[in-house]
Amino acid sequence: MTVTIFLGSLLGAMAIGTPIAFALLLCGVALMVHLDLFDAQIVAQNVINGADSYPLIAVPFFMLAGEVMNAGGLSRRIVAVAMALVGHVRGGLGYVAILASCILASLSGSAVADAAALSALLVPMMVRAGHDKARSCGLIAAGGIIAPIIPPSIGFILFGVVANVSITKLFLAGIVPGLMLGLALVVAWWLVVRQEDLVPPPRASKAEIAAAVKDGVWALILPAIIIFGLKFGIFTPTEAAVVAAVYALFVALAVYRELKPSQLFDLFASAATTTAVVMFLVAAAMVSAWMITIANLPAQVGDMLAPFMDDPKLLMAAIMVLVVIVGTAMDMAPTILILTPVLMPVIKQAGIDPVYFGVLFIINNAIGLITPPVGTVLNVVAGVAKLNMGSLMRGVWPFLIAQLAVLALLVLFPSLVMVPARWFAG
């Protein structure tokens, strides 16, 4: 009965168009009423405690860093470096998109920001080169979702806060799986581009490559600073976010000088608006998370998953299928905030490493960003590239399948996540 009320109130509120944050509040209140525990003070206290979290301070700074990189020319220079390195091969612009996605992922942590920037920069170039527009947009959308996997990752921050798991360990464990997603896109693009009749652009000279790297070196240094600092404990993930934002501002204002002081207010306002949405979601989710614990919902979910509890791989596979289904209808942040408190006790009971689960859980949620009908990244790319959603859905399928294959591989072989994670952690 408790599970029915939880799902019924949440899905019912969403069905009538209630914003997800308010749907989470209503869900928590419904459980309170059902258990005869309703108290407005408890609701208010949980909302305040939900937003009162030191690790969450990283969110606005990573948001700001992403805004600054797009406006200040850092993103464009990264694309130029990728173009100089791999632009000459057959289908080279696609490989440029993948390489640029991986590099940008290590800077912003935002799938939407990265996909929007690359769509604006690369889609017109790919169409002029003779690539199918839908496939080009599908590749860029799929490349954009690498951002929540390679550190820094806003998804890992949210999961770490809700699940009480080390964010630094999550960051370091996400590096290799994120690169595997990029490699899967390389293979998928290689298969797709063989069907197109294209003339590759000329190879960049050594001087042109050197010039592109020299111009983009300030942008390329940032990922190294973040990973080095996290690995050797120089700063925490929250401090890394501040470093990223300050460094991006310095480079955009003082080195590249493409960002004017007059633009700063709009950038800060945009980052603040996005942050406010995320923070209110987290705060509202804490009400339902508290009630999930009080109502002992995880035990009931554990009973449902009891047939899989003796086999961790089978349990992970079942949970991943569940999250894929949820991801088709719900955005990444709400899915993390709703499912994490329900699933974490089950994961611990089954003896599965929380860091390993967190990486696969966030990969799955990231894939949800390009699964129709909700797919936030799909909507952003469609809007930027001026392409209808039906065509974009056709174009993204080969790359979606490739990334789902990586997820399946990680379920079957947990060492692909944990062995590199231990190495990076030192």
Helical residue percent?
over 70%
Summed over residues and divided by their number, the pLDDT gives a mean of 84
User: Biggest sheet, in brief?
Assistant: none
End-to-end separation in angstroms reads 47 Å
Query: Approximately what portion of the residues adopt beta-strand conformation?
Result: under 5%
Q: Count the strands?
A: 0
**Whole-angstrom Rg:** 21 Å
As for the number of domains, it is 1
Number of helices, where a helix is a run of at least 4 consecutive DSSP H or I residues: 21
Q: Structural class per helix/strand content?
A: mainly alpha
Low-confidence stretches: none
Encode the helix/strand succession as letters: HHHHHHHHHHHHHHHHHHHHH
Shape: globular
Short description:
This protein has 426 residues and is mostly helical. It is built from 21 helices and no strands.
Q: What can you see in these coordinates?
A:
The chain has 426 residues and is mainly alpha-helical. It has one domain (39-425). 76% of the residues lie in helices and 0% in strands. It is globular and about 70 Å long. It starts with a helix and ends with a helix. It holds the Pfam family DctM. Its main location: membrane.
Give the tags.
transmembrane transporter activity, 21 helices, transport, 426 residues, DctM, transmembrane, mainly alpha, globular
